[in-house]
Specification:
Blueprint lengths: L1 E9 L2 E6 L5 E4 L2 H15 L8 E7 L8
Parallel strand pairs: 1-4
Antiparallel strand pairs: 1-2, 2-3
């Protein structure tokens, strides 16, 4: 089983939200986010089988002025 997190870049850091389970975490850096996601997944699945993989999907929204 693979679970997917939607990651958005907020001012000063990142927020990761799992699309299929109630898992949300945040961090100041990408490396810290990866560690926090691992920790949150481990805590959520503490009494179940861990997923075989975790996918972090970075979502970036950018507005460009054309005039």
């Amino acid at each position: 089983m693979e679970i997917v997190f939607s990651v958005t870049q907020e001012s000063g850091g990142y927020v990761a939200e799992c699309l299929t389970h109630d898992i949300v975490t945040q961090a100041d850096s990408w490396d810290e986010l990866r560690a926090n996601v691992r920790e949150a997944v481990g805590a959520y699945f503490f009494d179940q089988s861990l997923p075989s993989a975790v996918r972090l999907h970075l979502v970036r929204d950018e507005l460009l002025a054309v005039a």
